[in-house]
Amino acid sequence: MRFYLSILFVCFFALINTATAQDSVAPSENEQQQALEQLKEPMYKPLLERYILDELKAVRQDQQQLREDVTKQVTHAQLDTADRALIYTTDTINNVFFIITATASILVLVGWNSLRDVKNKVEDIVNTRVSVITDEYEDRLKVLEEKLRVRSEEILSNQERISVTNEVHSLWMRANLESDFANKIEIFDEILKRKPEDVEAIAYKADALLELNETAKAIELCNQAIDIDSDYGYAYWQRACAYALTYKHADALADIKMALDYSPNLRNELLHESAFASLHDNDSFNTIVAGS
Fold it and tell me: Burial, 219: exposed, middle or buried (Cβ in 10 Å; 0-12, 13-18, 19+)?
């Protein structure tokens, strides 16, 4: 549009110049043509520059307008985002307050109508739980204490046995070194005080009594040893010696057989045992000796 207006303006200006020239002295055609060519260049150049300046101004204005529009859009977008965030925060806070209100209402409905009730309820739950845990650990401690007590008793018993064993071992060493049979009997009595059912001590005490010719007591001790341990061959051996000394040969032979059954190593002592001297002429005894 501006371009057309520029052309009309140029044409109008040319017409005015032509009329003015005709009113003045009429030049020749060549002069007119030269004058027209001289007028075209200075007339068109300012118009083109004006057009370009106008176009640049329009472009600048369009850019300014575009910048304003973009700024407005960005501002509106930021405002929309802020509004949404504010609305979300408001809704969230409202929901939290609604949940708190609903929870408080439920607590009131179920009977927890005050903080004191809540505190009491929590204390009851905690006390109940603590009581259960305490009872459980008390039971465990009782079991542990019982085990420790039994273990302590076993340890004390073992220590006592060890002490008794050491004492008995010492007494046995004394008995082996003692040559007087009366003193040996006293030592065996000390052993039997510590170990009343020691069949070996009972049998050796019976042997010492036989050396003192107390056969009745020796037989009684042998019977006691056999009652405690019926498989102890040396008890039968000592009782056979007592029977042989009292000339009860049948009983003596029976006990000899029992002694050899439980303790075959005693067979080597048959001919060396002085108590069996009265049996040397006995055929059954000699048969037993020959069987060895």
Answer: buried
